[in-house]
Amino acid sequence: MDRLDQYRKILTRYWGHTHFRPLQEELIKSVGEGIDTLGLMPTGGGKSITFQIPALASPGICLVITPLIALMKDQVDRLRGMEIKAQAVHSGMTREEIDIALDNCIYGDYKFLYISPERIRTELFRKRVASMNVNLVAVDEAHCISQWGYDFRPSYLNIAEIKQYIQGEVPILALTATATSKVVDDIMDKLGFRKKNVLKASFERKNLIYLVRKVEDKNEYLLSTVSKVKGSGIIYVRSRKKTREIAQFLVANNIAADYYHAGLKREIKDKKQNAWSSGNPRIIVATNAFGMGIDKADVRFVMHWDIPDSIESYFQESGRAGRDGKKAWAVQLYYESDVKRVRDRVEAKFPAVEYIKNTYELLCNFLQVPVGSGKNVVYDFNLAEFVTKYRLSVTQAYNSLKFLQRENYIELTEELNNPSRVHFTVGRDDLYKFQVANASLDGFIKLLLRSYTGMFSEYVAVNEEYLSKTSGLSRDMIYQFLKKLAGHNIINYIPGKKTALVIFTEERLDKKSLYISPDNHRNVKEKYLERLEEIIKYISSQTRCRASMLLDYFGQDSVRCGMCDICMSRNELDLSKYEFDRILEEMKKLLEKGALSSEQLVEKIDADKERSVKVLRWLLDHDKILKDESDKLLWNT
What we know:
This protein is an alpha/beta fold. Helices cover 45% and strands 16% of the residues.
């Protein structure tokens, strides 16, 4: 069978599609031929299929490295739902769970092992991966490996070391939704590509209209917009409090809306996301925690209430609109005070070096980690309790911890919602003997075996609530039965919990020995400021096509979109893009040399006078040309 036919058959069998989306086929063919490949695919482009299909087409297991534990669990659940054997190993698991999971990946015919980057350097993983028949290494969110990227993670630098431990020449597929040219080169270098190989989907979205609206009363603008634009929408805000307030404001005005943020319980998050995906409510107001796993194609608008930190995050979030190919809108709201506020936030985002050191010492005391110990130990961590105990600013404490992660002293995970897990520690014969001898537990054991499969070979997530409803027993009785079986050494039972985790990458140092490079601190801050100024420049621009600015930022060829707010105002001039741009450039060059009167400027332009006056008026209206005290014209730099 032709290799491409095989890929298509797998696509149809498991995903029900007969054709690949743009770039998917090229990426699959590239890694299928054993070539290291970097794929740039915008949000919603179907990245996971590009490593799942070639992995399914070859003997062995695919290693998938991702920093998002929630995404890891979600993809493993989806694969298992398609009866594909997949496993995840991350910081929220016990050593024994990891031990069993890795053994299953060696001996159990598993096709996918999802792993968080901080696990790569552990001795346990390195020993076991050497015994695995690895057919592909997939690196998701690959921009995290680049110090030029917007979300650098030191643990990503360990990925290239995997090559030392796995058998044979295994291709790497690195994937990211957004990366500048500098980041693209850095990714390939840091992952040790045998030769440069980048495959890019065009980031151009011809159906997506980018609008920037300078409005003082955002509530009024929002109501006006949602009454005009039918269908689903997402409103991104920066604070959890604001998600509730804006959702309540919409509901009070008879618009079906709900809110979403990272602080909600997993089951509530799932319920809200599923309800919105089904079309009721039509609008979700959310922080940037809302994004993972969104595959709703008919989102008609994405609105940013606040200014994002970077073009990358703005582009990804806006890209969730209009995936069905129909017309959709990406709207950025702002006022002058927003620009000041976003700049003022920088100091809180980058606490002083001494503050970061103090936070490290307080963290170690909070977790009771003695000096010289703690390396690779995983600790449950409650940020709210931590800041309350030491009376710290939440923002500064959190950003100090993120900087300690960047300096490779700790890893800080997002809050995990780990379900309860059960693993039978005895074989079926011994279990049968136990059931005969313990009739009071026999019925409950049968309930467990009826409800879940695979518990003899691995830890399986169990839901006490579900077992309670199925059996008619109280939740507490279910818990007591599980504890009894664990007490008899029939099962290992790990009760569920919801917590963030801190992993010490190095042993605890005393404060004097903790080195935080002032240069690194300054460089990280400067890079952040550069990205922030780019998004402010995008928002403030009154002369350049919005879509062109975004594409230029990512190093892609661009032409004027003709639909954004800038293009629409230009279109009213009845000038071609070529004419407008040529006259604009001439005026800019002349005025950069010195001030001129309107008549002098128009006279010097090599174009029809009426057309030159149209462009001049437009530039004056959009503050690109200013007038001095004597009414002469100046270019606004």
